[in-house]
Amino acid sequence: MNETAILEAIRNTWLGETIRDISWTFAALEFLHFFGLCLLFGAMLVVDLRLVGALKVGTVKSTLRFTHLAIAGFVINVITGAGFFASNPENYWQNPLFKIKMVLVVLAGLNVIWFELKERQRVEALLEQEPCHLQTRVVAGLSLLLWTAIIVLGRFLPTLGAG
Amino acid sequence: MGFLQWLAATPVAAWVLASETYGYYIMLSVHAVGMAIVAGIIFMLCARLLGFAKDAPLGVFDRPFTLAKWGFLFNALSGAALFAANGPNLVKNTPFLLKLTFIAIGGLTLLLMTRAAQKERVAIDGGASASVQVRGLAAVTAALWVAAILSGRIIAYTITY
User: Fold this and answer.
1) What DSSP assignment string belongs to B140-154?
2) Which residue of B has its CA nearest to A156?
3) Where are the beta strands (DSSP E) in B20-154?
4) What is the dihedral of CA B93, B94, B99, B104, to 10 degrees?
5) pTM
6) What is the ipTM score, two decimals?
7) Number of domains in chain A
8) Would you call A63 and B39 a contact, using CB atoms and an 8 Å cutoff?
9) Searching chain B, which residue's CA lies closest to the CA of residue A42?
10) Potential cystine with B142: which of A38, B46, B123, B148 (Cβ 3.0-4.6 Å)?
11) Structural domain containing residue A130
């Protein structure tokens, strides 16, 4: 199956057809995508500011609970994002900014996996006001940079086609 | 010449509208990141007061809240630039007027919520539930900011340039 056929198959899915056929669905998904990004980014701010050390109140463990809301936002945005893509796959696929955005989403995901595997256990052991290791602070700072870049790229997608 | 026409003639408006400067997309990006900071932190604070992450003291929001104030300033500025470019159409756009209304009321309920929560801070930090008044204000505040985001999205579908 070549690239054209795959994009065509995605276009012809029930999801793609529904979003193209019912006029308000795209706008509704956009609203949910914006709401999802607020959940994701707001939660990451609380978590990452504590990890970076800009915030010294409370234990890291207590702020890490907000990652649940970040995951909720991420799930909303993967689903709504898949909807945008299915509605017009060729247009997104030809857009280099879209590809860069997806690469950054994958990097942000790898960053989360790194945190879960290497950092979580040792930061949960930290006491109130205790600063994190340099490596943890780099991971947290990278997270904020990546998500900011992802939001900006999303807003720039229409300059090169889809969005 | 009216105020809106004067605004539309400013260099800022020209910069937003000129395609080669990408001013429109730069302002939209600032506005989107600002939204994520402001609405995101408000949602987190409302969630905490509604009973989420009860072991996190309210102090964890001190720094984020300062950041949210900066985010609000950036969004007022980026919003003003976007408004300058299309004032005459925006003042007649119902979703735009609704959005400003939701932000004004949502800002007011946020203020009332933080003041009321401050009085219960020791108890809330200790893991107790916030009072019905604080939880009510948290639910209303979150709903108003969701409404602001929704009406902001609808502007894009109802405005003409």
Assistant:
1) HHHHHHHHHHHHHHH
2) B25
3) none
4) 110
5) 0.95
6) 0.95
7) 1
8) no
9) B40
10) B46
11) 3-160
